[in-house]
Amino acid sequence: MTIDDTTSRAPGQVPKPEPIDITATVERIRSLFGTGRTRPIAWRLEQIDGLERLVTEREQEIAEAIGADLGRNAFDSWFGEIVGLKGEIAETRRHLRRWMRPKRHHVPLMQRPGAAWVQYEPLGVVLVIGPWNYPVLLTLSPLLAAVSAGNAVVVKPSEMAPATSALLSRLLPEYLDPEAVKVVEGDGAVTQELLARGFDHAFFTGGTAIGRKIMAGAAPTLTPVTLELGGKSPVVVAADADLDVVARRLAWVKLMNSGQTCIAPDYVLVEDSVKDALVEKVVGAIADTNADQAPMKRIVNQRQYDRLVGYLQATKGKIAVGGAHDPQMFGIEPSVVVDPSPDEPLMREEIFGPILPIVGVDSVDAAIAHVNAGDKPLGLYVFSRSRATARRVVDAVPAGGAVVNHIALHFLVPSLPFGGVGASGMGTCHGEYGFRTFSHGKSVLTKTTRPDLRFVYPPYTETTKRLMRRIF
Hints:
Layout: H1 22-34, H2 41-57, H3 59-70, H4 74-100, E1 103-105, E2 114-122, E3 125-129, H5 137-148, E4 152-156, H6 162-175, E5 181-183, H7 188-197, E6 201-205, H8 208-218, E7 225-228, E8 234-237, H9 243-255, E9 267-271, H10 275-289, E10 297-298, H11 302-314, E11 318-321, E12 325-326, E13 331-332, E14 335-338, H12 345-348, E15 355-361, H13 364-372, E16 379-383, H14 387-396, E17 401-404, E18 425-426, H15 431-437, E19 439-447, H16 462-471
Parallel strand pairs: 3-4, 3-6, 4-5, 6-7, 8-9, 8-16, 9-15, 14-15, 16-17
Antiparallel strand pairs: 1-2, 2-19, 7-18, 10-13, 11-14, 12-13
Helix pairs in contact: 2-4, 2-5, 3-4, 3-6, 4-5, 5-15, 9-10
């Protein structure tokens, strides 16, 4: 879900956290879980209420921390971090009792009399590893799912957003059970040390490369993992699409958080007959969208800035707008690149920045073939006035999620599962899907002691064998 690294960052350093005894911390929280304190619904609802109070009462502090880490303004932090989380909280509070209720299952004739059901139990002590790009939303969202399922949780915020990490470390013990929810700050080495302790589940949000390391770190202890990753989310624009709407929605979502959004539109595939018109409208929409903001979009750190500048310098496409950059503030001007080469980094690697390639294709079918030639994306977006065309694209392209005639807003529907497929991730979160990710569905069958038919027990005669074949 993010491009990860730990090298030089923008000004506004936060002192490094004090080291802690990770082994002792994990042992204490595991002991606490063993008491059963986190299982009752009352405890779960208290944690849910605490999360809601945290993001409501401390919204200004959250915005200030995110501003220090990412240069985002307070309104954008509210929209990007708080809105979606509050929707998930409301969904969870409304339906938690139903999710927790055992689900009855049919018992076949040969098993009667008897009753069968699935009951959802907490996994135990789980690890939530947050990202830097949406450091509150994408850390607290899986935390919400974990506590709603009755787990004790170790939270490891991203060291790439140190002000937000420090804030979460200070605030979470004030609003949630401080013995059942522990915050551990630190870098990738701390994450690997945590994984080595063994958890009942690990939930990671970040880039695909680091996701592989998380999976490898979890393997020795057989810790199951959910990986929310990223990838090159395409936008397919058919010739019959409303180009004004396409341009506005592209510009809005692409520039959100300087393009550092896992489900941001990574590149556009548009039918050749309307390509030039779309480019012109996107250039205008970017100017409108960015009119009241700084001309440069701030990038999280030096390495990511250098990577994106390298994309612009290496492109063989035409830069229709933008291209300027400022090394002092790690700033990059919103940029549109038309028809870059398919083998250049801009078209092979996840961009994760304010650069939008627009590529002409012969047809919608050609766009489908282009997308399917690469890794399965986290998000798929298609614009068309034709329901049949839109459905054809959605059905033909494997992706974590899809949106027709808009971009990324499926994330804000809390009842929909959110997750990737293939290189874009495994497992899901949000609503009941998040609850189940952090729960074990235990199968239970109860039987009576009477009748107790003797013929089902050995030794078997030829008659009882024939009878059992008919019954079973």
